[in-house]
Amino acid sequence: xxxxxxxxxxxxxxxxxxxxxxxxxxxxxxxxxxxxxxxxxxxxxxxxxxxxxxxxxxxxxxxxxxxxxxxxxxxxxxxxxxxxxxxxxxxxxxxxxxxxxxxxxxxxxxxxxxxxxxxxxxxxxxxxxxxxxxxxxxxxxxxxxxxxxxxxxxxxxxxxxxxxxxxxxxxxxxxxxxxxxxxxxxxxxxxxxxxxxxxxxxxxxxxxxxxxxxxxxxxxxxxxxxxxxxxxxxxxxxxxxxxxxxxxxxxxxxxxxxxxxxxxxxxxxxxxxxxxxxxxxxxxxxxxxxxxxxxxxxxxxxxxxxxxxxxxxxxxxxxxxxxxxxxxxxxxxxxxxxxxxxxxxxxxxxxxxxxxxxxxxxxxxxxxxxxxxxxxxxxxxxxxxxxxxxxxxxxxxxxxxxxxxxxxxxxxxxxxxxxxxxxxxxxxxxxxxxxxxxxxxxxxxxxxxxxxxxxxxxxxxxxxxxxxxxxxxxxxxxxxxxxxxxxxxxxxxxxxxxxxxxxxxxxxxxxxxxxxxxxxxxxxxxxxxxxxxxxxxxxxxxxxxxxxxxxxxxxxxxxxxxxxxxxxxxxxxxxxxxxxxxxxxxxxxxxxxxxxxxxxxxxxxxxxxxxxxxxxxxxxxxxxxxxxxxxxxxxxxxxxxxxxxxxxxxxxxxxxxxxxxxxxxxxxxxxxxxxxxxxxxxxxxxxxxxxxxxxxxxxxxxxxxxxxxxxxxxxxxxxxxxxxxxxxxxxxxxxxxxxxxxxxxxxxxxxxxxxxxxxxxxxxxxxxxx
Amino acid sequence: xxxxxxxxxxxxxxxxxxxxxxxxxxxxxxxxxxxxxxxxxxxxxxxxxxxxxxxxxxxxxxxxxxxxxxxxxxxxxxxxxxxxxxxxxxxxxxxxxxxxxxxxxxxxxxxxxxxxxxxxxxxxxxxxxxxxxxxxxxxxxxxxxxxxxxxxxxxxxxxxxxxxxxxxxxxxxxxxxxxxxxxxxxxxxxxxxxxxxxxxxxxxxxxxxxxxxxxxxxxxxxxxxxxxxxxxxxxxxxxxxxxxxxxxxxxxxxxxxxxxxxxxxxxxxxxxxxxxxxxxxxxxxxxxxxxxxxxxxxxxxxxxxxxxxxxxxxxxxxxxxxxxxxxxxxxxxxxxxxxxxxxxxxxxxxxxxxxxxxxxxxxxxxxxxxxxxxxxxxxxxxxxxxxxxxxxxxxxxxxxxxxxxxxxxxxxxxxxxxxxxxxxxxxxxxxxxxxxxxxxxxxxxxxxxxxxxxxxxxxxxxxxxxxxxxxxxxxxxxxxxxxxxxxxxxxxxxxxxxxxxxxxxxxxxxxxxxxxxxxxxxxxxxxxxxxxxxxxxxxxxxxxxxxxxxxxxxxxxxxxxxxxxxxxxxxxxxxxxxxxxxxxxxxxxxxxxxxxxxxxxxxxxxxxxxxxxxxxxxxxxxxxxxxxxxxxxxxxxxxxxxxxxxxxxxxxxxxxxxxxxxxxxxxxxxxxxxxxxxxxxxxxxxxxxxxxxxxxxxxxxxxxxxxxxxxxxxxxxxxxxxxxxxxxxxxxxxxxxxxxxxxxxxxxxxxxxxxxxxxxxxxxxxxxxx
Lengths: 770, 770
Hints:
The structure is a homodimer.
Chain A: E1 11-14, H1 19-28, E2 31-32, E3 36-38, E4 57-59, E5 63-67, E6 80-84, E7 93-97, E8 100-101, E9 108-117, E10 123-130, E11 136-145, E12 152-161, E13 166-175, E14 198-206, E15 209-216, E16 222-231, E17 236-242, E18 245-254, E19 260-270, H2 276-293, H3 295-313, E20 316-318, H4 321-337, H5 363-375, H6 377-389, H7 391-400, H8 431-447, H9 450-471, E21 473-474, E22 480-481, H10 499-522, H11 524-533, H12 540-549, E23 555-556, E24 561-562, E25 572-573, H13 592-596, E26 598-599, H14 606-612, H15 619-630, H16 641-651, H17 654-665, H18 682-696, E27 700-702, E28 705-708, E29 718-725, E30 728-735, E31 738-745, E32 748-753, E33 756-761, E34 766-769
């Protein structure tokens, strides 16, 4: 596969503009700060063929809701969808050279370059344009979405006439006449709403300042989209409103070879964050402060933020430029995508596109959380706080699902309500509860942050554990069974005793009991408060222990593998040999029931349990399970390859580990799933990091103990990453024949290396081991 | 429970008009002829409270289609719904007495009676009305929907002024401004279309003659609704059109004590039956012919048709008037509901309401077919011809479901395409294929009609049998398994090896192989033609035999019962003790997944197999299965009680047999499911007949051999029914201590009575046995 961009280590860059790749490029060049997301579309707009662009601007967690209409209703099906809105396009800057409109697809473009540097966080474009009538101008733009202020973005747009002097017009716009993509046959894309969702409340239009005030109809949020512009040379100025479009117009008597620079500071403020009455004033203050600081100050602030980020998070790979670029690209986009205010999370596509409607899934806890936990633990905590904010909704959902006690988290949501409109691959995935508990356990083990446990974690873990004793029951042999659920593999649905679910539920039940026992003994007052809050019955922890102890974990004695569910092996193996390549992903080419009927997996299921519950399996188990399930897995889900890479590493399939890793690391850059134009795959992006740390470096955390067992892919000279652990920062560098552990921050840290205990301290920070 | 109407043996009758029961009465007093269905609404209209009436007129098989929109799409989900349309109301006759409009809810009503006699097929109403201003008049109406001509209905509406002479106006209308019910939370009722579905093409409005020409938007059918009226006394006449409403107006200078009689002949003709260009002329001809014959001639014709029907079909019960009324009511409605033109079938609610949208289900083959087979075999054949007409659609559906060969019948449909919008309780019910094959087998065994087999049956049975080898596979123990299907019980979905499905598939596969073997040996030319038509591979019959032989039929050795599916017994038993009465039916109060997770059945599943495949079980088997499944069955489906009644009879639970029978026999008359206002339950109606013949009389047909083992419920003095068999008509009369078999028609008939062979002949037609 040819790579989309040159293999630069720290950026993506293109030197020709191509309508065929434009839709994809818009995603890859997207900017975000965990709140605002601006697709990498052109400031001046794009007039290419239909279906080659989506000019989207998004705000993480800002949604419209709509009733879900089922052709055949049933009790307690999710009633309301929430979808991330395409908000007004405030990026617009257009340009006329003596009446000729600048358009990348008209005239002639030379010396074109577009570049997104992961160290600067600035999207830059430069070119020389010759108009159809022969006017030449140098044009460049810079754009950033501020990491320092989640409401702010800024654009610098500059033009220099090269062969003329005359009237140049620069127009800065906010365009509210936008709408979301409509749903088609692909269940992974689009909302049911057609037409604009934001209704005009009013507009402020002053010299240099524009603000559009809007409201969503159903979710009832108010939004202010605002911009403040300035131009570097003498000009005449005007402003205009055309329906939902606000324009600031600058007419410049331009001189040949003198640059005209328009700077635009933009902001979005919504009533999800502040009182409605404050939004307009906050917008103005933010923009004025930004203008006072100036564009260059924002650029510097952005670079400083990223320098700090990379100092912690950079994964260095020597020996494969494609991977090096891929993994940095992925981590950069993760940072751009993740909500960090405790009210928002990270959606399946970040803030880069409308795939999966901006919903949050288990992807966060199982795929993305470890990256932030070990690299930006303060963001990891915010992700967990988000789940606490959703606890009331999860309790309510549990009641709807006839659970007398406990909380059931939604399979997909923005604000906390269940939004999955197809329950067999939605609500049925009860493992979401255990996934969240697992992330809390991981967080506690890595940070020891008891304040989180007392304030939020204990309540979540206990409330969610109760669902297992609610849904499960003891079978005739006295084993605890969990029926009628769907595991991670969405090509098998509504099964009994999904291995992953049962094993994770067992972990969850034991964890909940441990918390109750620990708090009862160590923090009796806090325990009394929490127990009262959840109306904990005194015998519940014992019930949890008992269910965990008697949990049925399907195992096939003949094949000596863990069976994905009670009936998985009695299904017919999918006829892979006679399935043409174009029939993948299967979900777009076969009725769900046809897929469910067969042994065929969309993604890691048992194999994921091998990673998450690593110490419960022998290496032989892992090898047999890997062998069996690899043969029946299509990896039609982007969540699959990274997990297979990790387990392949562990069982010694180094070539496979490398191939699966490669697929994950460049999944979006090379668009291997063919749908990156709808947004990046944040879970796979984070899976790349896991592929290095968990995969090649063999990192596992078992009951708080960190273990490494590094291997070095033959293609690499070395690799290096860092992890935050117990307040320390540890650098791990693996090269031929040796691993160097270096304590970059903190007093003392202990872990194991290939089973041997290692300790690094501030006074003796480096250990080099074979 | 108080009975709705007095317990007349041959009619339903009411003597007071009640808005509270009106919605239900409209269903019970509905008239139909298997094509036209007119709800029992008042000619003059009804102004009672909202939700107490639905003025529906339906044509069996006449439908509009609409796209099915899923909130989350998937491949090969049913794309288009078809729903039986509410067609123009052509029944309207309204009346003004010197300007005062006749209204049952105004003024005063005396001497009221409404009556539907099952021997006349005429709905009669009579009353004396005193207007608010004191005008008294005797009013009576008669209405019939002709059994002799499926396009025709007629109304006689008469008024006699009792205390005044003066201006009386009688107005006859056709009102096209009607629409279907909209869908709400109950998945069993309503369509997604709101507003009128029939668009006006034109109207004929002549003195005495009105015709409305309309077209459906999506299905593209043309419909002509027409009426011809006459009035018996001197009058002035006018006609008017108001949008979709046509009126014939009669102004009569009325004399006290002189009856004014309006006679209205109405018809519906659609392009589903004839060329569009013929519809108007056919309407006119039919109405003119009816007028020429006169209303009394239609009444006589109707009575003659019914006399013939009852001579064959009457079931006499001495000792329980409620049951006697119930079973005759049911049989009368079955006759009114069943399509008999080979293009239409019998819908779940007949033509009496919009529940289940006029769709045809397996109800036809498994519940309703036996009644017609043994009472009106010519109609039974038409029902089977309907399935042949649907074979091309079933082939196409099989391709969509990734079956390379064969045909898969839709779970619900009107014209042949799959219309089920919730596949776990729709398309997943693959047993529909075996159900159809079963009815063909039953038909062949009862009639020996080889012409049907050659022309239609063999092709259907072989094409549908192929689906089993397509969907099934051999498991590791070499047993043939059928995974991921739903059996009859809709409270358990998407299971492996549903007992009913597997056992019926086994029967089906063997039947298909037998047909192939029989035809190959006996009818080589016909066989060659059919084999070529279905591209039969020479080894397919042997494959069918092998799959049938190795079919997995779940059996639990501990409980010694047939397990409903592979995992049924490992589910938790529903907590019936703590389920309040108002939480039934469960489907309206619990998420499907909650229901699926438990051992709880909506209806007979294994227990139905005990009936259909009777000879495959010992009596002990049947008793244990009955005991086990009765304890976990809610009978939330109206298809359940009749089957439990039959098996209860067989295993000697006579009290239970009687109770279940009672529930079935008066299910609609007593509205025990609380939804008869949306239409009668045709399957339960036919289940009543099975309850007598299969239940109390112990009738079974095993490989063509008819067996009886009669019992007499203690509450009865005797019962009697008749069956058509091999061209003979046999009367079975069971009374205390004896059974009398009487050959009413035919030469010779052999069967068994409690295991002993009996033969009746034309010369010795009666056998009385203990």
